[in-house]
Structure formats: C-alpha cells, structure tokens
Fold Acetyl-coenzyme A synthetase.
Amino acid sequence: MSDHPEDTFFPVPARLLDKAQCPEPYITSVEQYQKMYRQSIDHPEEFFGKLATELLSWSKPFHTVRHGGLEHGDIAWFLEGQLNASYNCVDRHAISTPNKVAMIYEADEPNQSENITYGELLRKVSQLAGALRARGIRKGDTVAIYMPMIPEAVVAFLACARIGALHSVVFAGFSSEALRDRINDGNSRVVLTSDQGKRGGKTIETKKIVDEALKSCPSVETVIVCQRTGHSEVPMTPGRDVWWGDEVSRQPNYLAPEAMHSEDPLFLLYTSGSTGQPKGVMHTTAGYLLGAAATVKYVFDYHPGDIFACMADVGWITGHTYIVYGPLSLGATTVLFESIPTYPTPSRYWELIAKHKVTQFYTAPTAIRALRRLGDSWVEGHDLSSLRVLGTVGEPINPEAWHWYNDKVGKGRCAIVDTYWQTETGSHIITPLPGAIATKPGSATFPFFGIDLAILDPVTGKELDGNDVTGVLAVKKAWPSIARTIYGDHKRFMETYLRPYPGYYFTGDGATRDKDGYIWIRGRVDDVINVSGHRLSTAEIESALIMHPTVAEAAVIGANDDVTGQCIHAFVCLKPGISSHSNDLPKELILQVRKVIGPFAAPKKIYLVEDLPKTRSGKLMRRILRKLVAGEKDSLGDISTLADPSVVAALIVKVESS
Ligand code: WT7
C-alpha cells in the first residue's frame, strides 16, 4: 500500500458483484456510471423526467421537468405536477405491503425495540394529520417539531407533509433560546414535542425546554405533547398544551393526503452560516423527494428487503433525508436509533446491526474515530455479515478511520461510501457508488447524477479545468433537490449561495480534483466550524459569549481535534474592571454558550486575553488565532496590517501557557 492517499485504490469488493452472495448492484461499472452521469448532465430533462416517473407516484403528471436556474435563483422542477410526500412514503406501501415493517424503533434501552408496519404508519400519520387540521393547521402553515428519536417524531414529519404544512424540526439538543429563535423565524403555529427524552440512560427535560422557549413565541397557539416516559409531572398550560394521545384518539384512521404542487414547500431546516443568524433553508416537495429516493437507491444500492440504518438524529438534514424521506419513499425498513453508540456499552452499533440484520449502515467519522479509540474488542465477535454498504457523512474521513471502518466493521467485504453533501443540497452530491467506483480512503470520489461540479479559483472565480487542481467547490447547474430559498429572505439566499460566483452554487468548501479526477473535500473556506459533523458558525458562538455581562469581545476559531474533527477555542476579552482571575469564569462562559445554542456548541477551551488581533479597519484576524492554536507561531504570515502587532506576543504567551 502506498503512503500517498491519492495512490491508494480500493476496488469494488468482489462479493458485491457476486450474484450468489448479493443482489446485483444497479450500477456495476465505472463506465456505466459515466454513461449515466453524462446523460444526466447533457439531457437532464430526459434523465430526471424518467427517474421522477419511476421513483415517485404523482396524482397529476408534470410536463416541465426543469425551469429557471442558478443565475436568477428561480429554480423549479417538475412543474404542473402534483404529489404528496406522505402518500409516497406511506400510502403506496401500505397499499402494496401493509404488513411490511416501515420502521424499527431501537429504543434507548436495548430490550425495548418496536416494529411499526406501513399499515400502522398510515393510521398514525393520518390521525396526527387529522389532529393538526382540527387545531386549525392548513397548507402553508409551519409546525415546529422538537422531539427525541421516537417513532412519533417520524409520524410528525409525515403528518405535516400529509396536510401540506411545513415542518421545521429543531434538533432536541438545541437550547430553549435557540428553539425560541427558530420558532419565531418560521412563524410556527404549533409545537410538537414530548414530555421527556431518553438518551444514553439519561433523561432530558424536553417539555421544560419548550415551555421556557414559549415564554416569547407569540405565534404558537398549540403544543401537542407526546408521552415518552410518562414519568414526570409535566406542567400543561391550559388552552395551549394538549396530550398527543388524546388528540389522535379522536381522529379517524385515514385522512386523504392534500395534493401538493411540485414546488410547494415541504420543510424548513435551520442551519448555521458565516453570520450570527441561523438560516431557515427551505426545500420543496418533488425535487427534494426525488433526490432522497434516488440516492438511497443508487448510493446505498437499496434493494427490496434491505434494512436501512442511518444513525443520525432526525433533527439534522441527514435524518430528514436518510431516516425518513429517502428510505420510506422506496418502501424500505428504516431504523430509528434513540441511543448513543456507547450505551450501554461501545458494542451498541454492532449489536444493533446483528440484531436487525442491517444491510446499509450510515454514520459520521467522529463516531468511527471515537469507537476505534475504545479498542477492537467491542466490535469483534458480532455477526455483521448482513452489511453490504457502509456510509459516512458530515466531515472528511481520515484514512485511519476509513481503514478501521472497512476492516473491522466491513471485514473488507462491504462498499464504503464517503458521501459529501449539505443541508442545502438536500441529498448526496459527491459520493462513490457501491458496485461501480473504486474508492480512495478520504476521497468522496465523483459527482452524483445531475451534479455538474466546478472547482473555482477563489479569487478570480475562474473555473479550474482538468485534474490536479485545488480551489473552491461549486456546482454549475441546479439539480432537483437543491434548496430553493432561505425562508423569508430570498436576498440572503442569493447572496450566500448564488452571488459569490455568479452562475454557480457556492458550497463554502474547498476541494481538490486529484490526478485521477477524484474529489477530496478540504473543509470550509468560510467562518464555519465543523464539530462532530455539526455545522457551527463562529459568529453565532461569539454573539452568545458577548451576551455574558463580563465579556467585551470574543473571537472563536476551530482547532483540530482527534475525535470530533474540529473543536471550538474561544478568545475572550473582558470588560474593563472585570478581573480575569476568577477560576469560575471560563466555566461560566462555556455554560453561557450551552444555554444560548446548546451543549454541542460548547467551547473546549477559553482564553481570557487583553486584546484580539485586528486590522486597522477593525476586522478580526482569526487566521492568526488559528495559527497560534495549531502551534504555527512561526508561520503567521503578514502581520503588518494589524492595528497593533504587539498583541501577537501576548497571545503567544497565553496560548503556550494554557
Ligand atoms: C458541511 C455541511 C450533509 C449532512 C451532514 C452535514 C461538511 C459533509 C462531508 C464529507 C467532507 C463533509 C462540509 C459541508 N461535509 N459531508 N463526506 N466530507 N466534508 O450537513 O450541517 O449542512 O454541513 O459538512 O463542510 O459543507 P451540514
């Protein structure tokens, strides 16, 4: 094996192409991939028109496959067509295979798993949809979902989709303040939640967090509360809070789905950018659903009978697309995992795979790195023979973690798919295909169908043609599942994604196309930090810190971390007259961030400093802080533009002594 990751090829495992052992992959050679890819780029109308007819059910056919584009930000697909996402994910399978398991709920305690069939799912979704209607929710209204990983969360997604309400799922690890801001930005009229949550043996006070948030959410009329534990005395606000069980029990078993236009919004999902304000990324019905279905089919090589297990939380885009919409639209069995990889022991993932005979398994590099560190004994001795495709997502995977995943989990007989995508792309945009693409550990390999990639010179915006080039990653043409706008702020959508390099969708990531044409993602080029595959903005964390009464200024950077990929380091200047000697202050500041954003955004290190490095015009030079923390004080680059170059010496002392 070569030392250069660029020269290390892993061919498709022979087992995957052996019909005696595995179902035949849909795409079995790189030539077949290239042919289909070319067609998807050169004749998108034909390619996606056919795919949308094959994979989705329409109540009214579309005529115009593609309309508008990146230049004007008026992207539309499958115009004139009508369909309903919940019909596609539930009804059509409930009709053909009512007793097939739609969802395996693997509860926090391993002995409490539960199966839900498509027939049962249709009833549950219809009843909640009826309850929402009864509470006045109509097509176009927004419903906030703040729930743990329980089956009702998935039911909530689909009930909203059934009546044409936009769901706005807020990850249940967000604080009450972050929840409040997202509810208000989306004008949510209803909040769906639970009494408590369970995760890794711990209890989470879900409803209490909602109550705190709702102290300043004027748009919310109703809170529907599901019982996850039933253990606590949850305070219910009369006239506003109702029990889920009571609401649905009054509803009939079937409610007809609302016919939606292709471009009617399906959901909002908030994500961080380079400014402090989170963005409500909006996806629409047909294009998004097609991206979800097509990638589960081709990237995970889903075949009927497969058991699909995505370990993400439904609060992130990965959960939306690869727990809910993708697998269910194809009529698959999807696994909903409520716990964490180390509960009750670090064998949990492997027990789950063996117990449910999982065929596709999808997780983040950070989880793989954490489990690898705990030792091989936890993964040995479990029957992982059902696995065919192992996916990773969220951040670049380092070759050591890739090899461990391939050797210890895949036993060298599975495909590893390093899938690159974003909240805004809706579904995978760069990824290997299991039966077709020889992989290189650490490379996301090639673009998915319809993704016309470009690597641009960051300064001139000129496209860098050919191989062996590095620049910023962009896409030249709109594809079906690209986000359509930022809720309530189309101007910001244009400015963030479509204006930086006119005519292109700008990803915010740097990338290399190597000598063989393989794509390597190099990480964000903006002020976004990636901690355990969670996207955080430096500005958002800085503004959380500044809200603390002692803080005058803050600068946040991403530092390398062996397990989480990046971690947060914060440089804080205190207000005049405040002593930096209080031992509790750093702890208090960390708490402040947990409170304003959520525990996952907590800084790992706080430096209390006198001054921050700024240019004469007052612009913060985070680059210098990044270099200092990385131990590269000798390659700071040009510091002559600093208003006061002497601050650097003081910062060096601070960083080196802590
Ligand atoms: C950012 C998007 C999309 C699901 C999870 C995160 C990084 C994502 C990869 C990958 C290298 C990756 C990028 C991207 N990212 N997947 N396979 N290799 N980097 O969604 O919160 O929207 O974040 O995650 O930096 O821009 P997200």
The first strand starts at residue 64 and ends at 67. The chain is about 30% helix and 20% strand. The mean pLDDT is 96.
